[in-house]
Amino acid sequence: MTPNAAVVPAVRSARVRLRPTMQSDLAFVLSLERDPANLPFITPWERIQHEAAIRFPDFRHFIIETGAGLEPGGFLILIGCRNPHLAVELKRMVVRDKHQGFGRAALKVAKKIAFDDLGAHRFWLDSKKSNARAQALYAGEGFVVEGELRQAVKTAEGYDSLIVMAMLQDEFMRRRAQAAELPA
Asked: Which fold has domain 7-177?
């Protein structure tokens, strides 16, 4: 297993592993982004953007492998992996099979990578304001709302705001001490 891969049993027996995305995975990634169930919550990238994210050292692009067979079940992207301020961003997380705990399990692994492997001081993300379900997941996993970027993204209906959320390293360590995070 690579240093950026991990396996985690999680809520409701969800099992995930993150592995680096390969060029051969991009058709799967693009299909998830263009899935009508996901489109309201993300701004899809072009293939060339994903190709760059796979190669650029400041990014970590992962396939989320899920279930007993660890089949491709989603993807996530981290940005700022070489940020001098030690601020890593969860740019995107998309899971194919919803309501099975795979998103929560993948987020736990992503936090471990951000804080343990990348040495982040701050792990942050933004979410469309209309995506209350994602915000509830992030809040339940210890992320704190820091603010709102009003009408920051254009949508089919007009504009949506972005909710900025973050977790600091000391908050992560407190949660780990309470066994709410994966062990070191």
From this structure: Aminopeptidase (3.40.630)
